[in-house]
Amino acid sequence: MHFKLISFLLFVMFTVITCSLIEKNHGLLQVKFRLIVFRPFVGEVIAAKLKESNAEGLRLSLGFFNDIYVPPPLMPSPSRSEPDPENKNQVRWIWQFEGQDEYPIDGVDEIRFQVHSVSYPSVPLEQEKDSKPFAPMVIKGSLDADGLGPISWWI
């Protein structure tokens, strides 16, 4: 027999928890929840919102998942970054189409990206106090194809 490991993320969001009956040593709870199973595949096109933009590229969010990264080599070619006048800790990425027209990635529109790779990092034994939270799944996305990037680019 051959087994294939299938990895995915499971999100549970409790919406209502009510206690119906409590007796000695046991109780009855009524729970309503939403369950999201998320398993993107390489090549899939997904729409997300801009969460962060810096010299290392873009960080995108689906609302329930925030570990989507678009590094500079996977941005539309040619692209460049410049300081963001509205947020001095971030940069704004700009696609220069055919050397003339400039299209900024400003976070106003949804951004279509193509899944380039999906990784499942191993759980760290220890985590530094000021480090970012552990991400059980990391998606690397690409904007370097027709129809990808902010939706306003293609309307």
From TrEMBL:
Residues 44-154 form the RNA polymerase III subunit Rpc25 domain. Residues 1-19 form the signal peptide. Keywords: DNA-directed RNA polymerase, Nucleus, Signal, Transcription. Gene3D superfamilies: Nucleic acid-binding proteins. InterPro entries: NA-bd_OB-fold (IPR012340), RNA_pol_III_Rbc25 (IPR013238), Rpb7-like (IPR045113). One of its GO terms (biological process) is RNA splicing. It is found in: Nucleus. Its main location: nucleus. GO terms for cellular component: RNA polymerase III complex. Belongs to the eukaryotic RPB7/RPC8 RNA polymerase subunit family. DNA-dependent RNA polymerase which catalyzes the transcription of DNA into RNA using the four ribonucleoside triphosphates as substrates. This is DNA-directed RNA polymerase subunit. It comes from Nicotiana attenuata (Coyote tobacco). The lineage of its organism: Eukaryota, Viridiplantae, Streptophyta, Embryophyta, Tracheophyta.
